[in-house]
Design a protein that fits this description.
The structure is a single chain. The N and C termini lie far apart (about 110 Å). This protein has 3 domains: about 90 residues, N-terminal domain of TfIIb, CATH 2.20.25.530; about 60 residues; about 80 residues, no CATH class. Helices cover about 25% and strands about 15% of the residues. The strands form 3 sheets. It has a 5-stranded mixed sheet with strand order 1-7-4-3-2, with no helix packed on it. About 15% of the residues have low confidence. Helix 4 crosses helix 6. Strand 3 and strand 4 form a beta hairpin. The radius of gyration is 37 Å and the shape is elongated. The protein has about 300 residues and is α+β, with helices and mostly antiparallel strands.
Length: about 300
């Protein structure tokens, strides 16, 4: 369990998070005063703030995901922690985050720059720690062009090289999906309720589509579209949505009817000829001589006064 006290915590108050993380996260640092570091970095897909965790030596980067249900808390020692979320620290390739800044530098500058000048962000200053992650200097060539001048290296984003690198990521993901028997076909939803049954409807394209979706969570939308074309994936079209039923307005006014019910009003019936034919009994009644007969309403008139 890793404990982190937020800066906004009040005096005497503490905040603890229950986190599932690899053991390497809490390895003793080589330097005193160092340790696992929670920090905000830009999400490489959206550019918005997200929570990440650097290992003690800053060589590994983890993204923090939270599982949250309402009305959940933790018993920690002799205390109750009201924040009942369960956090997961999962390793992420820091090159995805470097890629985000390389794309931005290409759009803004369009020229070769040192990597430490590309990774500059006033709002997220911790992004410079990405340079400390293992193998960044050796793997950055997958997404950029390189030039060396006077012993110093300069870099510029290259989309073609990036797409080749992302295709390798997709291929690796497809292999893991197959090895782990992850359901990616049309029966994904039903397969979760069937134990011990092999699902064989997934095609190679299904695996690539699924892997492309996973990788797209770590790259900008524009690059995700370019990657789909590079992989020659079929365009996924969503089924047409059914028209929503008309909502009735809640007000003092009468409810608007969907049909013209005014044709059944009594006043209109007097002015319209009956469309149905008269029955035999009705025809016989119509031929009866009604002279001298009183109407039914006559029996309900008020009585006249009798004078002596």
């Amino acid at each position: 369990m890793l404990t982190r006290k937020p800066r906004s915590a009040e005096k005497g108050a503490s905040s603890q998070w229950v986190i599932l993380a690899p053991v390497s996260v809490t390895d003793l640092p080589k330097k005193s005063g160092c340790g696992p570091l929670f920090t905000r970095l830009r999400n490489p897909s959206t550019g918005q703030a997200a929570l990440y965790l650097f290992s003690s030596d800053a060589h590994q980067l983890f993204e923090i995901k939270a599982f949250h249900e309402e009305y959940r808390s933790w018993f920690i020692g002799q205390t109750v922690q009201h924040d009942g979320r369960l956090f997961f620290a999962t390793p992420v390739d820091p090159l995805f985050l470097v890629l985000f800044y390389c794309i931005q530098a290409q759009k803004e500058q369009g020229k070769f720059q040192p990597l430490d000048q590309i990774l500059v962000d006033e709002e997220f200053s911790s992004c410079t720690m990405l340079l400390q992650c293992a193998n960044i200097s050796q793997s950055v060539h997958h997404i950029v062009e390189e030039k060396e001048i006077s012993g110093r290296k300069f870099y510029k984003y290259n989309e073609e090289k990036t797409l080749k690198w992302l295709k390798k990521k997709v291929d690796q993901t497809v292999k893991v999906l197959k090895d782990q028997d992850v359901c990616v076909g049309g029966k994904v939803q039903s397969a979760t309720f069937i134990s011990g049954k092999q699902i064989t409807d997934a095609t190679e394209v299904d695996y690539i589509l699924y892997a492309h979706g996973l990788i797209s969570e770590y790259i900008p939308e524009e690059l995700s579209t370019a990657l789909a074309k590079y992989l020659r994936l079929p365009q996924v079209t969503s089924p047409p949505a059914e028209p929503a039923p008309k909502k009735r307005k809640l007000s003092d006014a009468p409810v608007e009817a969907e049909e013209d019910y005014t044709k059944f009003n009594t006043g209109d019936l007097k002015n319209k000829k009956a469309s149905n034919k008269m029955s035999a009994a009705q025809k016989a009644l119509a031929k009866v001589d009604k002279s001298g007969m009183k109407t039914i309403s006559a029996f309900f008139n008020s009585k006249t006064k009798v004078t002596k």
